[in-house]
Design brief:
40% helix; 6 helices; 173 residues
Length: 173
């Protein structure tokens, strides 16, 4: 059986300390469940923290979908860097490649685009302590495919449930 891929998305340079701690814990929990951690692959913020957390587990696998066509700024915690040369258009690859998308903490335009693209593709989205305006937007787009969490462990509980259901609800945007 193929290992499930969990996308973890959030702020890069603008990530706050609490969100980075949440992403680290989440990455570790994802790896403990034998799922693969997928991020934007850069060595900053939520991307670095989730990948670093996953690498605390010996048999973990981390994927990084990078915006450039050269390995610039790749997190040392990414096992498999995918160079796209697509800039932010890589966000579509991020969400299409994961089974569940998780947004952590503060969300800029890139993370909001990943949430919207995931919902458009019918992927379940879990929001971990995201700002109210982002949560409200996501719920307006797809109330049945968005799940709010307040801790990394609650995210894992949602992921387990969502993977057991494995039903996708594409939406029209």
């Amino acid at each position: 059986m193929r290992r499930k891929i969990i996308g973890v998305f959030g702020a890069g340079e603008e990530a706050d300390e609490q969100s980075a701690r949440d992403a680290f814990a989440l990455g570790k929990l994802i790896a403990e469940n034998k799922w693969i951690v997928l991020t934007g692959g850069r060595n900053v913020g939520i991307m670095r923290a989730a990948s670093e957390g996953a690498k605390q587990i010996s048999d973990s696998i981390t994927l990084g979908i990078l915006p450039d066509d050269e390995p610039i700024g790749v997190s040392p915690f990414v096992d498999i860097p995918i160079l796209t040369g697509m800039g932010n258009a890589r966000n579509n690859i991020n969400v299409l490649s994961c089974d569940v998308a998780v947004a952590v903490g503060k969300c800029g335009a890139g993370t909001v685009s990943e949430i919207a693209l995931a919902l458009k593709a019918g992927k379940p989205v879990v929001l971990l302590n995201t700002p109210d305006d982002v949560t409200s937007l996501a719920l307006r787009l797809s109330s049945h495919n968005v799940h709010k969490a307040t801790s990394p462990m609650q995210v894992i509980d949602y992921i387990r449930k969502l993977l057991s259901e494995s039903t996708h609800y594409p939406i029209s945007l």
